[in-house]
Amino acid sequence: MATKANSILENALEKAKKAFEESLNDGSSFEDMTTQIDRLTKAQEDYLTKTNQLYETGKLTREAQLAMDKTDNLMAKQRY
Q1: Contact 64, 80 (CB under 8 A)
Q2: HSE on the CB side for 79, CA within 13 Å?
Q3: 26 secondary structure, DSSP code
Q4: Does residue 23 register a pLDDT over 70?
Q5: Between 20 and 30 A from 32 (CA), which of 10, 19, 70, 73?
Q6: Which domain holds residue 52?
Q7: Element of type H or E holding 9
Q8: 23 and 30 in contact (C-beta within 8 Å)?
Q9: Pairwise CA distance, residues 20 & 13, whole Å
Q10: What's the pLDDT tens digit per position in 24-60?
Q11: pTM
């Protein structure tokens, strides 16, 4: 008798969960939302990585230009 009651309760909870998911997410499940969040997080990390790479490259370029401006070595200035 207890297992039948548990089964009925589990079914009711599963239906309530499904109804709740559908009401919040236009029918998407929590797993779908988690997948979307994971994809967005990965895209954000990739974007930040690329942005940091570009920033560091620009910084090194500026440092090299400043060093070339300060040098008296004409050969080095002509080379770059």
Answers
A1: yes
A2: 7
A3: T
A4: yes
A5: 10
A6: 2-79
A7: helix 2-25
A8: no
A9: 10
A10: 767 677 788 889 999 999 999 999 999 999 999 999 9
A11: 0.55
Whole-number Å distance between alpha carbons of 25 and 33: 8
For residues 68 and 80, the answer to whether their CB atoms sit within 8 Å is yes
Number of domains the chain contains: 1
> Residue 69's closest CA among 28, 25, 54, 61?
61
Neighbour tally for 68: CB within 10 Å: 13
Q: What percent of the chain has pLDDT over 70?
A: 91
Q: Please give the span between the terminal C-alpha atoms of the chain, in angstroms, as a whole number.
A: 86
DSSP one-letter code for 57? H
Residue pointed to by tokens 């967005």: 40
